[in-house]
Amino acid sequence: MANFKTHYNVGLISGIISSASFVSLSILNSLEGILCLFLWVIGSISPDIDSPNSKPIRMFFYIVSVIVSCSFFFFSMDMFYIIESVILAIVIFFILNYMLPIIFSKFSTHRGIIHSVPFAFVIGFFISILLHKFFNAKDYLSILAGVFFVLGFITHLLLDELYSVDLSGAKLKNSFGSAFKFYDYKQPFLSMLLYIILLFEMLILPPMDNVINKVWNISNLEYLRDNFFPSYIQSFF
Length: 237
Ligand SMILES: [Zn+2]
Prior knowledge:
69% of the residues lie in helices and 2% in strands. It is built from ten helices and two strands, in the order H-H-H-H-H-H-E-E-H-H-H-H.
């Protein structure tokens, strides 16, 4: 099993490469790129919330709680009186920082349902819906932010699987197959529940046409061809 530092470093490097590519292709602007990078890194650490008592994960809960409750406060002031926004933000902080870790430590097992691909999509789609409906983010940004979270999450699952291979003895450890999975046979009810939530989320996802047009654009390839190498190197081709 890869440790926290490894997950963080791999998440950060792969996230920088991906978000920088999207910014250089003008699919995202710089600020949007930073948001997506942040979500990728958060995704790459998230699966280990099923070990909420470890020090780095406690810190992770704290940072996420501060960011989510502050964001809620700033964006909810149009909807509530200021004092109501403050109280709700404090309640959100309390739930995320104190109650959620207790729930996870009581009801989840390490490498259980949280270490799975459908869980990544449930949270990723939730982020897309939240950004679009609550924070009024543009549809393409909402979708990409969710996708970046999912991809960061998947780097974690794949890294865990990679560490399950004992390369010195060229054999598989017992933990192989317990991270990158689509269904947890030990928790069939929860696994089914995840797929049902996914179906509901898909009904209210932001529209996809814009993001598809932006990403699957032939001019992206042409831009990369013309801008990847400096002109003095291109002249050699
Ligand atoms: Zn893990």
